[in-house]
Task: structure prediction
Amino acid sequence: MRRLSILWMVVMIAALPGAWGGESGLNVIVVVNQTSSNSVQLGNDYCEQRNVSPQNLFRMNGWADNPISWSQNEFETYLLNPLLAMVSIQGLTNQANIVLLSMDIPYRVYNGGDYTSTTSALFYGFKTNAQFAEGCPDTCALPDEATNSYSFSELPFPTAPPQTAATNAFLALMLTDTNLAQAETTLQRGVFSDCTYPTQTVYLEKTSDSARNVRFIVFDNAVQECRARADNALLRTNSDSTAFTGAFGLETGLAVFSVPTNAFIPGAVADSLTSFGGFLRDNNGQTVLLAFLEAGACGSYGTVVEPCNWTFKFPDPMVYFYQNRGFCLAEAYYQSLALPFQGLMVGEPLSAPFAHPGSGGWLSPSNGSVVSGVAPFSVTFTAASTNFPLTQVDLFVDGSFVQTLTNLPPSPGNILSATINGVTASYTVVGGDSLSSAAGGLASALAAMTNQTGVQPRAVGDRLVLRSQNAATLGGQISVQAGATPGSAGALTSFANTVMPTFLDSIANGYHFVQATSNPNVGDWLQLMFIKTNGTQVTVAVTNTQSGATISTLLQSLMNQINATPALQTGDGAYTLDLEELGTNCLGNGFYGFFIYAASPGWPASQIQTIFTGSTNLQPGPGGTNTLDDNAADLQPRAHIYLSCGAASLPVQFALDTRRFPDGFHTLTAVAYEGTSVRTQTRVDQNVQFRNTSLSATFSALAPDTNGNPQFSIACSATNISLIELFSTGGLAATVTNQPAADIAASAATLGVGLHPFYAIVTDSNGNQYQTPALWEQVPVLQLSVSGPPQTLNWPAIPGRQYTVLTTTNLVQAFQVAGAVLATSTLAQWTIVPPPAGAAFYRVSVAR
Result:
């Protein structure tokens, strides 16, 4: 009989170069709830998938209570204060910008009658809810200290953290779902989404739910901003439907709805403006944000307490503009939120579908080289294109920041210029200028010429938004160029460019809002006079003839009359929509009003004039003659100018004092940053050995002990060993003192299910240290089994992961590659062809 022997699984990995919008695994702290096996496993998988440094995993101990809410004191005791201590001890203060909360962690923080979300409390601290109005929930307040200064800034997060944060500020997201498998799926979709450059539609829905559709007022700006970047994905709709597939995003306003399982592609962001979208485990009767993740989105948002329908408390559709620029999901979402304090941010924070990575490689020394003392190193990077120059290179050793190797900010003396219809404005870069201050300088120079150009500039982060001030001039009639010259500087490191050669006309319809109050008496009347752009006058009026009528009924009658008037149903006419009770945000003023829309899009069509009059009792307003351009900023033709800095090619030579680190095996990571506010990272790794003393040690994996704990054998070259430390995911895993050799085990229960790195640092009595190479192992050890015929190896797998099968007929000899398997389900299989003639031994390895 043929015999098969199954060995415990040995896992090998190869770290690959990667690129992320603004942030990467180097900048993430993963928080796991140590009392939840699902939380730990998901956190381990996140670290593996996103190359998070092992020391960047934080184990939250002791919390096994309410998975929904915790008090401010409990939040600070179990999470915030220990996390801040860990950041300080690990030296991550200037490195860690994102916190990923791995499921089964409370999402609501309370203190008396004040509530905030756990993610926002990590972002900028616990915020109180000041009393708003008599008879209204305290939680409807808009406290000043809850304003997010990072929102709409278009700045790198480390340079613009929220001003009201009392401690370190983190872009915090929770990766969670009702089960581990679904949360894992969200993670995988986020990883897959990077650099996919999707063109699928983003739906901005103005629903029939008037209390929840209020975000429609900001839709047009986001649509125009994206179109000015040549991104036409955003689509405004008047719809309650969520029955679509393959979308890149959705903003809607509904309390109860369903979403198809394939509604979204990887990288999508979707949410609903409703009261209880963040009630993940509360029984509230509304559809919660998890519905969007389970339909394929990588990020979503919902409030954890009644917020009232303030648009400021919900994501602005500019989130899709920020994504299109290349920002990662965490950066894009937090930039779109003016008041996030009551909202829970959920998803995969590093998802960056529009990141533009460069390329790079280590030139010397070669991979695996042994270096000593102060050693020379050389690495080079190339930008993705001239519009995405590289500005800075940082060095990390074993995942920890060491130093900035080079930095190319805007060079003093460089001249930035912008030309609008032949009129040129310029700005000379001065010492200490950042991209944002240089953008402000160029905007000021352009503003001084507004009388000549008819264009008003505004600096936003590293770009300028240009808006025409002349309603009679079409966007195509306004040319725009931008550029830069070296000026008095020795090199040109500052750049300015446009996306389109002319301004872009708006596709938004202009509108004007009118209102009235008080219930009408018999004989009270309302009238709207329209003066069309060709001078034609059209008058529509209604008179109340019924006792007990309401102002809303009279306004609706006026709207119906306007919409039925033939003279207003032409392209230069107007129509009405959206009768609203003002005070749905607890304003308590009893006013009603409606929108008058221009029949055609664009600024010229909005110049139809209106005069709203009526009985004194009804207080119609606003008074006077008004055009339909309350939203003039959305109607004005616009263009963008983008600034950047750096170089298309960035070679770096540097010397590193290897004596600062233990002897032994280290991974050097060079990270180049895109020279825009997005700062997309390009990361390249190199494995080297530092050798400055005679101390060394061997490190090898043993079979797990009887409790399933991974075991390792360590043998040192010297006898005066004072300490042996075993490290893995989350930091120190075990120690042995005063022994030159030892078998040492790590706790599988503490580590949790996942693929883990293991390495040891040995210290002798003179203080010399040696760091062993890292070994990666699956915990618990994967159990290989055989089925058949035909004889087939089987093992638990993660879908999408590549496995390599190795075999030997003699354990004294090296294992050889026998085949590869790409797992398509949670069970991987490999058929043994041909069957072995005698004894055979098998291993399975993983490459990531």
Notes: Residues 509-630 form a domain with the Alpha-Beta Plaits fold (CATH 3.30.70). The first strand starts at residue 4 and ends at 6.
